[in-house]
Amino acid sequence: ACYPSFSGATDRRMIVFHNGRIILEDTLLDNSAIVVSEGKILDIVAAGEIPLGNNVRRVDLAGGFLSPGYVDLHVHGGRGADYMDGTTESVVTANRAHAGHGTTTIFPTTTTGSRAQLERMLHACLSVRDQWSTESGARIGGVHYYGPYFAADKVGCHSVEGRRDPVAEEYQ
User: Fold this and answer.
1) Centroid of chain to Cα 51
2) pLDDT value for 40
3) pLDDT score at 171
4) How far is the C-alpha of 117 from the C-alpha of 87, rounded, in Å?
5) Which pLDDT does position 12 carry in this prediction?
6) Which of 109, 103, 83, 84 is nearest to 94 (CA)?
7) CA distance 91 to 143
8) Mean of per-residue pLDDT scores for the chain
9) What is the distance between the alpha carbons of residues 106 and 143, in angstroms, rounded to a whole number?
């Protein structure tokens, strides 16, 4: 594998994750460390090449695993909050719950509901996405427009009252 070269500069705040097993696409790395700055991976280095300096914070993984963040393409909420609640508070509560379990990017998913409910949900998600900070939890990658357009006999666990056939002006 080819990784960007670490320049050794310590003019930015860096975080080094070390003493763990790094999960890559096709292998596990031992005796290595990941160097991160401004939320981006700068390099993967051998344990003996860990950068030092006042601007470097070391995070000891204590033999645990370090993996890429998870992307959840279909999620309705979390920690008692439902995205269809249509409030920024519910969106942030659910996003924080998922971030706490390793999800870095999330696609809040609609279900059955009125046009007004769907619009509130979409606007709440847009607001959180546009004002995102680490305190907001997982980043919103988009909204999974799943419902309310279910076949009449395929609504499953969703509310039958909010189910309807597709209306182009609504979903566009």
Assistant:
1) 28
2) 85
3) 81
4) 10
5) 59
6) 83
7) 12
8) 89
9) 8
